[in-house]
Amino acid sequence: MRTIPVDTNALEFRWAGATAHHNYEDGEKVANQTVTTNGERVWKIRCVVVNRAAEEFGDITVVVPHGGEPAGQFESPITFTGLQVKPWAIDGRGSGQSWTAESFTLDAPAPRPSTRTRTMAAATNGAG
Questions:
Q1: 119 — phi, psi (to 5°)?
Q2: How many other CB atoms are found less than 10 A from the CB of residue 33?
Q3: Helices then strands (H, E): number in the chain?
Q4: Which of 87, 104, 113, 116 has its CA 20 to 30 A from that of 39?
Q5: Strand, helix or coil at 119?
Q6: Backbone conformation region of residue 67, classed left if phi is above 0, alpha if psi is from -120 to 50, else beta
Q7: How far apart are CA 59 and CA 50, in angstroms?
Q8: 32-57: pLDDT as tens digits
């Protein structure tokens, strides 16, 4: 299986949550969370990917080691280091992509206007 480095310069990643990563042996989920050789627990980071230049978006799950349980606010910007993708196929039974990264950083989310502010702006838009 080939590994392809991902150029993230044209992409935006937004946090959508995290769950523990588990390996499978003989089709059965291993009870303990996967850990690296350095003892870091491995997480599945769910995120939305936006490519503004192509006007496209999608969602991916990236497997990445992290010392503690990662926590972020929904849609917070996230930066991956060493992001790679591995295309895979299983003899006509399916195909897909596996995403991995060396590490990640959660950035502070941009402040969002309150619902009241957005409602008032919409109500007064063009009135005047």
A1: -65, -45
A2: 13
A3: 1, 10
A4: 87
A5: helix
A6: alpha
A7: 9
A8: 999 999 889 999 999 999 998 899 99
Residues 73, 15: contact at Cβ < 8 Å? yes
User: How far is 5 from 80, CA to CA, in rounded Å?
Assistant: 12
Angle at Cα 6 formed by Cα 106 and Cα 86, nearest 5°? 105
Question: Minimal CA–CA distance to 107: which of 80, 81, 79?
Answer: 79
Confidence class for position 27, pLDDT limits 50, 70, 90: confident
User: What's phi and psi for 116, nearest 5 deg?
Assistant: -65, -45
Rounded Cα distance between 67 and 69, Å, is 7
**Cβ neighbours of residue 23 closer than 8 Å, sequence gap 6 or more:** 29, 30, 34
